[in-house]
Amino acid sequence: MNVFSVSQFVEFLNAALTTAVFPEGLAIEGEVAEYRVSQDKWIWFLLKDENSVVSCFATVWQLKTPLEDGMQIRIFGYPKIHAKSGKFSVTVERVELMGEGALRRAFELLKKKLAAEGLFAIERKRPLPRFPESVGLIASRESAAYSDFLRILGGRWGGLKIHSAHVQVQGRDAVADIVGAFKYFNAHPGLADVLVLTRGGGSLEDLQAFNSEEVVRAVFGSAIPVVVGVGHERDETLADYAADLRASTPTHAAELLAPHRREVAAFVDGGVERMHGALRGAVGGRAAAIDGMARQIEAHARRRIDDFRHLLLDFARHFAAFRTSNASRLAQGAALASRLSSSASFWAGRFRTAIEAQERLLANVDPRRILSRGYALVRAGGKIVKSAQAVDIGQTVDIQLHQGRIMSKVTEKL
Amino acid sequence: MTASKAEKKFNFGEAYQELEQIIGWFEREEVDLDEGLKKFERGLALAQKCKERLKEVENKVVEIKAKFGEIDGAANE
Question: Which CA distances in Å does A17 have to A10, A45, A200?
Fold first, then answer.
């Protein structure tokens, strides 16, 4: 018989249990009781049925499924005797929730916990690119969700590059696949502007992966915005809540992701129309402004012309008045002149008569007229001789006759 | 890689946004004719490009070959 030390015995037993007795691990179904967490690290609970109880142990980082007393679960793990305490327990690696009640309860518990952490906060949601160029699609290529999404998206928008990550969306591998796909896209940020996680509807059990803490954290933690579209209209998952945009179905996810090309084309056409209209309005406005200015200039000019015309009229009036007043003055002058001239001629006549009388008188007394009657003029020494006394004998005297002169010598005085 | 090629490619989102801004300008402002003509010309060019892009009907699907279940966050990043 082998004799062990205590340590050897515990070691041997643990080795035998894991390698020989349960080489593939073990699975036990039962109801949770006395669930507790110590130091935020260690999880202890009992798994029980009507007759028996088994102690279970797990770490908080390994066991993400929220548990509560009374839940029906299936645990996966290996049995172990703890060296320090000598207690036997099953170390739990994974848990599956049994039945709708447990699933619903786990859902509520996790929702509460993650909500408290702020994973569903509205203010954390990021806007999606308005017109994505590339999409990361996380879905099962065998699902209707996958083909529905692509069909609807293609009907709305073209020219997209869609990188498809094929993942299991239910069963054992679903959580690891989905989380891995998020990691992949975030490690290759050039592949997608936006991520879409989608699958068809199902029971709470089918949708477990989308309610798992790992997937919810992967959605929340993605640096690339995420659209989650799971199930039918009524279905809700925790991944939905963590998404930047929640779609009710795969089809709805496609509708949220891209606008319809028809609407965009209508906006573009309408926009060109509106620009054109505004520009036409501006041209019209400017034409009206020019018309207005022209009218103003015209009015101004007309005012100036009117002013000028008034000035001209004033001038004309003044000139006419001036001319009129001058004309009367001229007329007065003319009257005066004519009066003057008529009186002058009167006087001139009278002078002429008087002069003619004088002339006649003068003609009558002209000595030459007397000479013609036979008289003679005697001059001596240039003087008219009126007396014989005035001459001497022998003196030459000048006798002027009517015609010619005679020089004679005085010979005798009587 | 295709990344550099994609960067040079016409970006619909940017063009559309610029077009929206131009249309908004026309609706908001007292349109200055010179500025308006310039913006109209730019808007028309953008609209033309956007309409060209809208004619693209096909989306290209690329299947990623990675085994996602085996991606270890720490090792991959």
Answer: 11, 21, 42
Is this prediction's pTM over 0.95? Answer: no
ipTM value for the complex: 0.76
Give the amino acid at A90: V
Give the DSSP letter of residue A41.
T
Nearest to A187 among B59, B60, B77 (CB): B77
**Residue B77 and residue A183: Cβ atoms within 8 Å?**
yes
The vertex-A223 CA angle with A222 and A226, nearest 5°, equals 55
Cα–Cα distance for residue pair A216/A178, rounded to 1 Å: 10
The range of the structural domain enclosing residue B39 comes to 3-76
Kindly list the residues from chain A whose CB atom is less than 8 angstroms away from the CB atom of residue B62. Answer: 161-164
Burial of A350 (0-12, 13-18, 19+ CB in 10 A): exposed
Q: Which of B46, B39, B57 is nearest to B11 (CA)?
A: B46
Q: Are strands B60-63 and A383-384 parallel, antiparallel or unpaired?
A: unpaired
- The Cα A316–Cα A323 span in angstroms is 10
Domains, chain A, ranges and CATH?
A: 6-97 (2.40.50.140), 122-262 (3.40.50.261), 370-409 (no CATH)
Amino acid at site A208: Q
Sequential DSSP letters for A138-200: EE-TTSHHHHHHHHHHHHH--S-EEEEEE---SSTTHHHHHHHHHHHHHHSGGG-SEEEEEE-
Domain count, chain B: 1
Pairing of strands A72-81, A88-97: antiparallel
* Residues A321, A324, A329: CA angle, nearest 5 degrees: 130
**Interface-testing mutation among A135, A268, A280, A283, with chain B (most B C-beta atoms within 10 A):** A268
A48, A95, A197 from B71: Cα distances, Å = 36, 22, 17
Taking CB atoms and an 8 Å cutoff, what residues of chain B touch A183? 68, 71, 73, 76-77
- Per-residue pLDDT tens for A294-347? 888 888 888 877 888 888 788 788 877 777 777 777 777 777 777 777 777 777
